[in-house]
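Quick check before the chapter quiz. The format below is the same one you will see on the exam, so make sure you can read both the input and the output lines.
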Amino acid sequence: MSESLFGEVTSAQRFDEAALARYLENVIPDFGNGVKVAQIKGGASNPTFLLTTTDAGTAKRYVLRKKPPGQLLQSAHQVDREYRVMKALEGTGVPVPRMRHLCNENEPIGTPFYVMDYLEGRIFRDATLPGVSPAERAAIYDQLNATLAKLHQVDYAARGLSDFGRPGGYFERQIARWTKQYRGAESEHIPAMEKLIEILPGMIPDDQSVSIAHGDYRLENTMFHPVEPRLIAVLDWELSTIGHPLADLGYNGLLWHSDSPTWGTLDGVDFATSGIPTESEYVAAYCRRTGRDGVPHWNFYVAFGAFRLASISQGVYRRVLSGIIPTDRPAVNGTAHLAKQALEILSRD
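Here is the expected output.
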């Protein structure tokens, strides 16, 4: 990670660093001494921090991820689920950081948190991959695709995740959940969201596939080797559950329709020369890896991803207004735009 990603802990996220140090020294073997804390930029949902210690003269680095302070939406910011799924995936071939400790109590820092090893690598914030050769771009997207396929083929029961979610009925529950989340953070009447809430339940495909679903799988939530086009970690598992693999794939597909540089967009990419695959090529590669004969009702899966993102956007907007998420820019609610995009995707041939 670039050093520019680290900064001072913001006033809204400050906690008792000395209390944290005393606690971790007792629960993580060879944790080190003299904890220094820096906030990692981004992480609008669960604040994330770099911890640096010294052990026998050697610097050691860890990452702490915690719930945000204040009143939270029900079922949101579940750091315990993030920790559990990453811990369960160790040794499966799905790359995850080494998990060190989960604290489910409000003490010592005011909210639950977990600690994992720090990894040195590249996180690509711009999905167009500027400054990267076409061959490396192709390899990066192929790694993104292959890792998703590998995740969806993990035997979740064998990894102790049978109770991590309910198999079957995933989209019914998810549409109900994100509708409820949206209502809980609603700040204005958005006709496109009302239309989606009305029509999506009746458009759910019959496919009842079940797998671990990451929930927010995209390029920015993965880390690549510092110099090789090799994916070394999948991050940000807050929305993970036992769900439907095509929800993850459809969320990936949204990248080819998004016009948001902050979330990710491929606007302006020449797919013939850039090395980045087209949407249909990306889906076909996933199908080859998982033995699928195409994806009927593809537009539904992509539109569902946009709908869910619209609900999340509404929640983020409310947290910005409340001051929980500090920003020096005017608060902008992107929900209406995302909902409109979802309706446009549903209307595609």
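If your answer matched, good. The two ends are 41 Å apart (CA to CA).
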